[in-house]
Amino acid sequence: MGSKKTNQGRWGRGKVTLAEAGEQQALKRIGKEFGQTSSGVLIGIGDDAAVLRSKAGCSVLCQDTLVENVDFRCRWASPQDLGHKLAAVNLSDLAAMGAKPLALTVSLSLPPQTSLADMMAILRGSAQCAQRYGAQVVGGDLSSTDGPMVVSASALGFVSPKLVLKRGKARIGDYILVSGTLGAAAAGLNLLELNRSGPRALIQRQLRPLPQVELGGLLSRHRGVNACTDISDGLEVDGEQLLAAGQHIEWFSQEIPIAPAMKKIFSAAECLEMAMGGGEDFELIFSCASAETKKLIQKAQRVGIALSVIGEVKKGTKKRKNGQIKAAYEHFRV
C-alpha cells in the first residue's frame, strides 16, 4: 500500500509523507498555520475542544462527508479544491437555515503515503473558504486509512430563533424561487469524468461551489419566506423538501435559469435535465408568499443576487411519470 504505484492518482505534492512526518509533526504544522483565533473564537486548535463566543441565539450544527471515488476523484480535484468544497457544502447547509457561519471542524482520514503538503493544502482550502464567509477552522481530527480518502467537516452557525428557515413549511399558492443559475455543477462533472474540454466556469462550479450565505440571511429576515433548502441533490428532489403533506410543485420549466455556458456544448434537453436533476449547484430554493415575491426579488437585486420564479405550490400530490427526471446521484442506490 505504501509503494509509489499505489500513490498514482493521489496528488503527491511535497517530498515528506504523513508516514514519514508522523501524527504529532502533522498536528504541529496544522496548529502553526491555523491556530490563531478571532473575535468569535476563544480557544481554537490545540486543546481538547474549541470554545466559541456568541450572542444569544440558536446554535445551528451540520456535518458533511466527501469520500474518494464517490464524491470526488483525485485525478481532477486538487487538494485545495477538495478542502474548499468540503467547507462550502457545510456552509451551504447553514445558509439554507438562515444562519451566520462561525466555525468549522475538519476531520481527515488519509492514506499514509499522502504528502504533508497535500494535507495542508486540503486544510488551507477549507480555511480560505470558511474565512470568506466569516468563519474559522477551529479543530478536527486526523487519522490514517488503508482505503479511500474520507474527509469530513462540521459547521457551526447562529441564528435568532424567530428567523430560522425550515423545510416542509411551504403554503398553497406560494411561489417557488431559486437563486443564480442551475446545471453548471452537473455539466462540470460531466466534463471532468469524461475528460472533455469545455468552459472553465462549468468545471469551477463543480470543484469550488459558492454557498449562498448572504442570501440565506436575507431570506430569514424577509416576511413571506416559508420554506428553504439548498440544491445538493437536484432541483426536483430538493424542491419536494419544501412541501408539506398534500402539496406538489407546478414547475415553470421555461423559467428555470440554465447556466449560459452550458448552452454552448449541450442540447436544450440535456441542459434542462442537468438543471433539474444534476444537483451540487448549492443555490437556495425556497417558497415565498406570492404577495411578497416582487419585493423580495428587488431586495436581492440590490445586493447583486438574481432570483427566478420557477414554480408554484399547488394542492394535492402528484405522481412522477415514467422517465421523469430524478436526482443524478443517491447514496446506497443500487
Describe the protein's architecture and organization.
By secondary structure, this protein is of the alpha+beta class. The protein has helices spanning 18-21, 23-34, 79-96, 116-132, 184-193, 200-207, 213-221, 235-240, 268-277, 290-302; strands at 41-43, 51-52, 58-67, 100-110, 136-144, 150-159, 175-179, 225-230, 247-251, 284-288, 307-315. Strands 8-10-7-11-9 form a 5-stranded antiparallel β-sheet. The chain has a 4-stranded mixed β-sheet with strand order 3-6-4-5. α2 (23-34) runs parallel beside α4 and α3 packs parallel to α4. The two termini are 29 Å apart. The model is unreliable at 1-7 and 322-328 (pLDDT under 50).
Q: Short summary of the structure?
A:
The protein has ten helices and eleven strands. It is α+β, with helices and mostly antiparallel strands.
The structural class is: alpha+beta
Q: State the separation between the terminal residues, measured CA to CA.
A: 29 Å
Number of distinct beta strands:
11
Q: Beta fraction of the residues?
A: 15-25%
Radius of gyration computed on alpha carbons:
21 Å
Largest sheet: 5 strands, antiparallel
- Order of H and E elements: HHEEEHEHEEEHHHEHEHEHE
Low-pLDDT parts are 1-7, 322-328
Q: What coarse outline follows from CA principal-axis ratios?
A: globular
- How many helical stretches? 10
Q: Write down the overall mean pLDDT.
A: 89
